[in-house]
Amino acid sequence: MAGNWKMNLNHLEAIAHVQKLAFALADKDYQAVEVAVLPPFTDLRSVQTLVDGDKLQIKYGAQDISAHDSGAYTGEISGPMLAKLKCAYVAIGHSERRQYHAETDEVVNAKVQAAYKHGLTPIMCVGEELEVREAGNAVAHTLSQVEGGLKGLPAEQAETIVIAYEPVWAIGTGKVCGADDAQEVCAAIRGKLADLYSQDVADKIRIQYGGSVKSGNVAEIMGKPDIDGALVGGASLDADEFVKIVRFDEQ
Ligand SMILES: O=C[C@H](O)COP(=O)(O)O
């Protein structure tokens, strides 16, 4: 279960938020559910200090990565910088990056390669816009993003990737994709991974659903066989709500 904070919570708020999560998750063995937060870049050092200092089980990562290791790329953050902060994960190709920063599948692929080069696990985001779904092309569109993003990636790396299926029309809109519709696309993603690699590799890859996930709908989504987790945006900013999502099996 990963919380993508997007451009929310400054570093002081981040400390308070992670402390709250850690406290609320400490009274039981929640390690069966891997919990990660993806704060803004400016929060990562504070989160690292807290997680390291208190030996918290919570993982953390970034919301983007540069395809380059260093150089004249104003405003960019590199893989070596994220690795130095001991980030476990990095979101790549989120629809907001694709939409507002013109990230193509080629760019996503370069960033996936950069993440692996520096020991970070990508959470590669894919998913269709509303008009694509309405035209009946949700699966084809999403599979093409999967194939483009994974181009050239060897099986031993691919098997550790996390793929987040996020239908764009369900992000931040309150319109959750029906669990059966989400399962249909996630099953197709797994089928594509089996074609590209092997069934064994496909079965190891974790596929998340993202798009208006809340405590009230997470259990139904998680009940689907090809959905292994959730990438949570808005609801991850409320610590109590995110904890309920993590503990979906207790509801
Ligand atoms: O990365 C998270 C997704 O964009 C979902 O956002 P949301 O839960 O606010 O709809």
From TrEMBL:
It comes from the Bacteria. SUPFAM superfamilies: Triosephosphate isomerase (TIM) (SSF51351). It is found in: Cytoplasm. Transmembrane segments: none annotated. Signal peptide: none annotated. GO terms for molecular function: triose-phosphate isomerase activity. Its EC number is 5.3.1.1. InterPro entries: Aldolase_TIM (IPR013785), TIM_sf (IPR035990), TrioseP_Isoase_bac/euk (IPR022896), Triosephosphate_isomerase (IPR000652), Triosephosphate_isomerase_AS (IPR020861). It catalyses: D-glyceraldehyde 3-phosphate = dihydroxyacetone phosphate. Keywords: Cytoplasm, Gluconeogenesis, Glycolysis, Isomerase. Its main location: cytoplasm. The active site is at residues 94, 166. Pathway: Carbohydrate biosynthesis; gluconeogenesis; Carbohydrate degradation; glycolysis; D-glyceraldehyde 3-phosphate from glycerone phosphate: step 1/1. It is an enzyme of class 5 (isomerase). Substrate binds at residues 4-6, 172, 212, 233-234. Belongs to the triosephosphate isomerase family. Homodimer. Involved in the gluconeogenesis. Catalyzes stereospecifically the conversion of dihydroxyacetone phosphate (DHAP) to D-glyceraldehyde-3-phosphate (G3P). This is Triosephosphate isomerase. It comes from Streptomyces beihaiensis. The gene is tpiA.
